[in-house]
Specification:
Mean pLDDT: 79
Number of helices: 3
Radius of gyration: 20 Å
Strand order of the largest sheet: 3-2-1-6-7
Low-confidence stretches: 4-21
CATH architecture of one domain: Beta Barrel
Protein name: DUF4410 domain-containing protein
Distance between the termini: 55 Å
Order of helices and strands: HHEEEEEEEH
Shape: globular
CATH class of one domain: Mainly Beta
CATH topology of one domain: OB fold (Dihydrolipoamide Acetyltransferase, E2P)
Keywords: Signal
């Protein structure tokens, strides 16, 4: 029986291959002449943080360009959902958020949902980093962004990096937050 299961597993893997995505770490920084281990570690950490910020900015810029609607929202519900990811080793998460103000696209009352839809060697994807947010947290939502899972992505305010989004947020946030009741 275990031989049949193994054969079935191999057949399924071969019949439905997943895309080959890999998160390749950047090459290590080269030590500068006379640089101490501590100085190299500080430079590497600073470089890594700057690179991560730039990657976030580029990703958010792409979402902003592709989104049908971009809104300020407050998370109203958050939790695990029944979908299993990574061969059943990880439960997917879902958040629902109430739109408070719209930066781009047609304003629409109501809620928007974001959820995990898959996993790669880079980690979980589908709903943006807001999918692990707690009720009451404020986020920016990008709706209609494909191919990001459900098409909706959320980002906590603390992670905003794109200057256009930050500017749009500042124009919408004050009136929206004044009218919001957590």
């Amino acid at each position: 029986m275990s031989r049949v299961r193994a054969l079935l597993g191999v057949t399924l893997v071969l019949a439905f291959p997943a895309p080959a995505l890999a998160c390749v770490p950047p090459p290590p920084l080269q030590r500068l002449a006379g640089e101490s281990d501590a100085d190299l570690a500080v430079r590497a950490r600073t470089f890594g943080e700057a690179e991560a910020d730039e990657n976030r900015r580029r990703q958010q810029s792409g979402w902003f360009d592709r989104a049908d609607r971009v809104s300020l929202a407050r998370i109203t519900a958050s939790g695990e959902i029944s979908r299993l990811l990574g061969m059943g080793s990880l439960r997917a998460r879902r958040v629902e958020a109430l739109r408070l103000g719209t930066f781009k696209g047609e304003a629409a009352p109501g809620t928007v949902a974001m959820e995990d839809v898959g996993i790669t060697s880079c980690g979980v994807y589908g709903g943006g980093t807001a999918r692990s947010g707690k009720p009451g947290a404020y986020i920016v939502t990008f709706e209609g962004v494909q191919p990001e899972g459900t098409g909706n992505v959320g980002v906590p305010l603390s992670e905003l990096r794109d200057p256009r989004i930050i500017q749009a947020f500042s124009e919408v946030a004050k009136p929206a937050l004044e009218g919001a009741k957590p």
